[in-house]
Amino acid sequence: MARDIREVDPDALGELTKQASEALEPVVVRGLASNTPVVSSAIQGDRDLLSYLSGLAHPREVMVLHANEDVEGKFGYSADLSSFNFRRIQTSFPAFLDALRDGTFPPGAVAVQGLQANHVVPGFVEDNAIHFLPAGGEYRLWLGTGAVVATHSDPAPNVAYVAAGTRRFTLFAPEEVGNLYMGPFDPVPNGTQISLADPMDPDPARFPRFPGALERSQTSELHPGDAIFIPTGWYHHVEATSPLNLLVNYWWRDKREAPSPWDALMHGFMALRGLSPAEKRVWRAMFDHYIFETNGDPGSHMPPRVRGILAEAKPQMIEEMRRTLVRSLSGPRG
Predict the structure, then answer these.
(1) What are the Cα distances from residue 193, in Å, to 172, 233, 264?
(2) What digits encode the pLDDT tens for the residues 222-231?
């Protein structure tokens, strides 16, 4: 049975975010952002919230997602997975706010997703930031009517707070990836894969492993001012259930020179998927030992001076490995 996401106080969240790369579980903090101006305006009413945002809004172009009523706010794929069940409308951010206020969009659900706060509402971050979060990240806004963001994961740790409306989060551990029935890598609705299985309407006949993942999931319903910390790679399904909803989130990355793990995954598709079962057995063991270190430090039995690529990666070493890979990928085929 799904369990509630663990709740902690702001101090505990602050410690977690300092060591986000080690965090293994999500947490919720009630009322973390309750005293911010954006939450205070939202509590007064939808029109007050929209007026507050309009007072800061920059006339920057944004992409609005619109889904017809029959979609029930569930932005995702068409039936054959070749396209999407929504259309995109380009407009300015102030015009989007006006349309929300006046109700002039066509029937259905509308949303703007992942807008950089500093671009569309200059000055917003100074007044509405969570100040103990690590530096180097970026605040983004997710604003619209009642809608659903399909299950997906992000390649960075994330702290998000509900500024307006109510959002229900359903989270799945990274190990559940094989039970979530993820969709194509291309096309994707908003830059990342999404699950084809729906927590709101499970289909055990089509997705037989999904009910087990749903039983092991963690859930929480957040109200204005409440915040959630989602560790890197945790899959999350988000339902915005109020007529008007605003989520403010903050992503940041560890400072490191290494390439993205996604690059390694793409290389794996090319180099590993076509191997025979015997060869896959060999390389699974190699990755477990050298990359995921299931047996501990693979170089611990050697003096540090001779460990080479088994030592802590230095910029010069990473650059040499990068050149080796480029030569390999650029070499003759066949």
Answers:
(1) 14, 12, 17
(2) 999 999 999 9
